[in-house]
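Task 17 of the worksheet. Students: predict the tertiary structure of the chain below and write it out as structure tokens. Keep your answer in the requested format; marks are given for formatting as well as content.
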Amino acid sequence: MRAETIQQRGQLAGRDAVINLVGILQGSRGMPYGPEFARAHVELPRRIVVRCPAHGIRRCLHMSALGADSKGPSMYQRSKGDGEAAVRDSGLDWTIFQPSVIFGPEDRFLNTFAMLASIAPVLPIANAEARFQPIWVGEVADAFVNALDESRTIHRTYELAGPKIYALRELVQFAANASGHRRPVIGLPGALARAQAMLMELAPGEPLLSRARRARHVVDGDVTAGAQGLAGPQPGHARRHVAHAGGGGDDLDVVARA
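Model answer:
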């Protein structure tokens, strides 16, 4: 949604805070990123924070992503990094959240692999050893809600992630098994991995796998606990049900950490 549309509909008028959750995964190529990433991740938050003072809004919560970096290797990461910079320079009482990959009912991460398992006899996966710390969507929502009235969170950036690091191979296997479709997972070498992502991007509709999806949310090290008490009423592990395409279901042990 364009910022002008937000203003015209009066969605900022009479509010005490603004929460920006807008994000996309796919867009056309460009440097440092294409126009779709620019509009969604950079121009929109910039226009929102510029308009907040006119409506008496001081509080701003912004959804970014783990690995956001204006000089990062992907368009997704670079645009998310520039969006963060716009929020930090706004003069508002901002808080930025950088979640790892988020899972939950109808997500497009675990459910994507579950759907693929329902139609493919084997699962060839790019970057099979890439590491992720997935987090339950409810814990991310808790972090936003709990931060709203917490003055200690103003002008701070929080990473949100689960307690355990998984190889992508493990998560794909988990999704396949939980959906009732046990399949062998095969890691692809670099050239084939890039070719797979490029072919997926050429398919009609939103791609199941893309170069942006491959690059985002990969962790370099364990995300330590700095946001405990924000991401849920109590710190600690939580067993959460994950809905999968193709039927079935299982639990993945996660808690928001930062």
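Marker's comment: The helical segments are 3-8, 35-51, 75-88, 110-119, 137-147, 168-178, 190-202, 211-215. The domain at 104-134+162-221+232-258 is CATH 3.90.25 (UDP-galactose 4-epimerase; domain 1).
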